[in-house]
Amino acid sequence: MNTVSVLVVDDDREQAHALERMLEQYPTHKTFEVEICTSLAALDERLRRGFSPDIVFMDVVLEDSAGSAGNGITAVQKLLQQCPGVQVIYVTGHVEYCTRVYRTSHVYFLTKPLQPEDFTDALDKAIENLEERIARPFGVKVGGRIMRVLPADIEFVESDRRKVRIHLADQVIEAYESLGGISRKLPGTFVQCHKSFLVNMEKIAEMRSDQIDLLSGATIPISQKRSRPTREAFMDFLKERL
Question: Looking at residues 220-232, what average pLDDT do you find?
C-alpha cells in the first residue's frame, strides 16, 4: 500500500489542519491523501458518495453550526458497517469517553493536545494493521468473473488509461480498475516507480537510475520524478531484510 486514504473528522478546523500537518511530517514513503470533515453531516455526505477511507481520525464529541452535539462513537459504528476494514483513531479532549470508545473497534485513543510520540504510535499501529490485511488475497473483476490474486505472486502492475494489467509469473490479468485502487490493496513491498507502474520489490534483481530489472527478466521504467523516492524505498526494503 503506497497511497493511504485518511479522513479527519473534527469540528475544530484548526485541530483538523494540525493533524494534517502531523501526517505530512510522519516519516514514511507512503502518500497520504487527506480529507477533512468538520461535521457528522459532512461525513455522511462523503460516505453517501462512496468515499471509503483507510484511516479515520474521529473526534468523539462534535458540535454543528446550531450548537448541537454529535457522537463520534455512534458515527464510527455506522462507518464500520460501510467500511469494515477502516482503522479508527479516536481524538478528543474529553477523557471521560476513554471507556465508551471500546463499544467499537479502534486502534488508538488520543487525547488533546496531541503528543507527537502518541500520534506516531497510533499511526504506526494503523498502518501495520492495514499492511497485514492487504497482504491477503484480493479479488479482481475480469469480465463476468472474479479472479483471486495473491500480492506475493505479482511482479508488477501497469496502467493503461482505464485498465490495469497485473503481471504474474505465468499470466497477465487485465481489469478495469485504477492504479490507485490496486495500490490500496497491496502491501508495503510495492513501490510506485512511475505514474503508470507499481513494482513488487521482492521481485527486483537490479535498480538503475532510469529502470528496474526484475528477476524474471522484465524491465520497468523509473520516472525522473519518482527516481529518488523509489531508490530510498528499495534501500529501506533491503535494510529491513538484513
Answer: 93
